[in-house]
Amino acid sequence: MKRIGLISLFLSFIFSVSVFAASPSDVGIILLHGKGAKPELKKYEKLDGKLSAEGYSVVVPRMPWSGHKGKADYNGSLSDAFVSIEKEVRNFRDQGKTTVVLVGHSMGTAGALAYAKHKGGIDGVIGVAPGHFPGSDSFHKDFVFFDVKKAKQMVEEGKATKSLKVEDYNSGSRRFKMTVVAEDYLSMFDPEGPMSVDDNLKGLGEIPFLWVAPTHDPVTSKRSSKYFGMAPKNPKSKLVKIDAKHKNAPPKAFGEIHKWITEL
User: What is the pTM of this model?
Assistant: First the structure.
């Protein structure tokens, strides 16, 4: 009788795993590229290819922070990004996908977290080499303080749709001079705005989160534990490390991404 009981328990466990584990064919993945990047880059195509080979449905929409060689165009606001993401979420739901996951690389993680908090309707968020921390005191004081101040002043003066010159930053100590619409800039850089990673992590609610930290990435190596700890406690949320740099992290994160999604 004891043996029969153990067999029944084992079969019950196997059944529960098969019922609740996410099958690739039921999963839609929306991959958000990093700042000054574009969907056609090899690192995103490689990750897309690996995920698609496993049976996942993957889309890589162009975000307002797209660009070339690290320099972003900022041809829209965070609200425009939300519209693009929401379209893909709706398409996946219409296709019968039971699980929709946002996977962001670098600034794409900040965008994914913002969508998760302010729009919802998704089943998980994955951040690969997360970047862009406008809610961080150091980020605000060291990089964007004066530009954010100028943009806010323009909004107060009724010039929200006018452009201003700012200095942008990216990994590898790269700096870029550019012209950006004031309200679009604030939507992504205001420390009290909708893209504050601090606030968005804290506001994830029950949405599980995977933080993938490359061990050779100065952008996230010192921040990973602190930021991951801001998210609500969730047994499905995880912080993992991979042997990669900031730029080449997406394809190298495939194994951890695949493993985590199958356990959702």
Answer: 0.89
Of 95, 62, 94, 93, give the one whose Cα is nearest residue 80.
62
Q: Count how many residues are written for the chain.
A: 264
Sign of the CA dihedral with 107 first, then 170, 42, and 83 last: positive
What value does the mean pLDDT of the chain take? 90
Nearest to 257 by CA among 66, 20, 30: 30
DSSP letters of 38-60?
Answer: -TTSHHHHHHHHHHHHTT-EEE-
Q: Which residue has the tokens 């900040």?
A: 110
The Cα–Cα gap between 62 and 21 comes to 30
**pLDDT for 30-79, tens place per residue?**
999 999 999 999 999 999 999 999 999 999 999 999 999 999 999 999 99
Could you give the CA distance from residue 258 to residue 264 in angstroms, rounded to a whole number?
10
How far apart CA 102 and CA 124 sit, in angstroms, is 6
Pairing, β 71-72 against β 67-68 = antiparallel
In DSSP terms, which residues pair with 57 in a beta bridge? 28
